[in-house]
Description:
This protein is an alpha+beta fold and 354 residues long. It has helices spanning 18-25, 30-53, 99-119, 168-182, 190-212, 270-273, 279-292, 300-309, 319-334, 339-350; strands at residues 13-14, 72-76, 86-90, 131-135, 144-146, 151-153, 222-223, 238-239, 248-249, 253-254. α8 (300-309) crosses α9.
Amino acid sequence: MDASHVSRHPVFCTVVPPHLLDKIARSERLPRADAAQRTLEQDALLRTRRSVTTLRGIAPAVGTPASDEPRRTIYDAQHRTRLPGKKVRGEGDGASGDATVNRAYAGLGATYELFLKGFGRHSIDDSGLALDASVHYGQDYNNAFWDGQQMVFGDGDGDIFLDFTVSIDVIGHELTHGVTQYTANLDYHGQSGALNESMSDVFGSLIKQYSLDQTAQDADWLIGAGLLGPDVTGVALRSMKAPGTAYDDDELGKDPQPATMDDYVKTSQDNGGVHINSGIPNHAFYLVATELGGKAWERAGRIWYDTLTGGELASDADFKDFARLTVAAAVARYGDGGAEHQALQKAWSTVGLG
Length: 354
């Protein structure tokens, strides 16, 4: 990745999209609406701050070879918005009495381990970058995000959303935005932005599957399972297996994600629908992984990782560019005409990108 590349859309990445929070902010239940509105306002402030402080794709540090061990530090923001907060657990420290701290620590470790053992990558930047996270951010903050330097988790409002550390795939999702930042640096708008989101969903799901030692057939392929409150009609934020089915709730509305190009959503919201149209490449990955079977990170995940990090994926790539490059990556690693090549052709054709 050329460190001089200037991204036209500096990335502030949250797991809950603004269009969803906007729906909640219109609720007639005032505590619910107020929490969503505060989250939207805080996200807007952070997004603006990110746009004026991080305008470039960044190169990994160059120095001594990275260790195979992570370097994690967890901070407690103590319901404030000043980061990082008070240090509460460092690498190798014993478990905290705070379950949120321990979940964040474990999630950072699982993400580091999958990228190292699955793909030979040493942390987010492939040079052993320290993994920092702040928990208990803000008041009833309904989101989690990667700010370009660290992870941040809200506690949720306890109503629509629960603690954002409960889903390990959410932790993996946000940290993968960091991997994308250090590699293809995909512009956060339109199809390239949807690819950015999809890469995070793909590797977030793989991190969960790796930590649970699941096969592609055993996995639930849900992003954010366990995150929705008990009164919400839904199972997760997104479904890679069946985009558009994760929730159908009076407050949240119906999951808008399409599974194929036939239902591609053209919108000016959410940076051109980055959290919506990501359902299409998400579904393609699910189809490839389940067609190949076994552990999804071993072949399907390897192809996606090679495509993200191979140097050919342009920052403004669209879905067709990405599909073509996955096929090239599969041929380079596994040869032409094999099961991997066939699975990719079938999957991309199914979602309308043959």
